[in-house]
Write a structure and sequence with these properties.
Layout lengths: L1 E7 L2 E7 L5 H8 L18 E4 L2 E4 L12 E3 L11 H8 L9 H14 L5 H8 L9 H14 L7 H7 L7
Parallel strand pairs: 1-5
Antiparallel strand pairs: 1-2, 3-4, 3-5
Helix pairs in contact: 2-5, 3-4
């Protein structure tokens, strides 16, 4: 066990933890942030996707000890006070069915839109290819990403989501 300091959703956090513990379990069990889901445990399905310093990352295979001082954003850190553009697009396009994969899907979509404010279908398919939806809502996910890109203020997403992902502040 050792002390690990992180910034999670804009808040400084210091934990006494085995440094080999996967980030997903620290988030869920020690911090009570259960929006990121356990799917495969091998980083293949995307249900556990969070942002590390703004990059979409699978948290189920990432030892927390490697993240000292890094900024982590979970789905709870995006749109905590109101729906972001991407979340509203998800609602408008009726994307979720069971909802299990949706936090990971949204986190991957946010990372895509941060890099490419107006992605075409091919770019969306590549960026989202690591996220599995057992309900098969891929066409709706693509449509929601296009909707969010069209609605986004030049960045394809809300400034709040951008700041939260970059670790620049606490999401409202």
């Amino acid at each position: 066990m050792r002390q690990v300091s992180l910034v999670v959703n804009g808040q400084a956090v210091s934990l006494l933890v085995d440094p080999e513990t996967p980030l997903l379990w620290v988030l869920r069990e020690q911090l009570g942030l259960t929006g990121s889901k356990f799917g495969c445990g091998k980083g293949l399905c995307g249900a556990c996707t969070v942002h590390i310093d703004g990059a979409a990352t699978r948290s189920c295979i990432l030892p927390v000890g490697l993240l000292e001082g890094r900024s982590i954003t979970t789905i709870e850190g995006v749109g905590a006070g109101s729906l972001t553009t991407i979340q509203q697009a998800w609602v408008d396009e009726n994307v979720p069915q069971c909802g299990y994969c949706q936090s990971g899907q949204i986190m991957s979509a946010l990372a895509l839109l941060a890099q490419n404010a107006s992605p075409d279908d091919a770019a969306i398919d590549v960026a989202m290819s690591g996220n599995i939806c057992r309900c098969g809502t891929y066409a709706r996910i693509r449509k929601a990403i296009h909707r969010a890109a069209n609605a986004g203020a030049g960045l394809g997403m809300d400034a709040m989501a951008t700041d939260a992902m970059a670790g620049k502040g606490e999401a409202p």
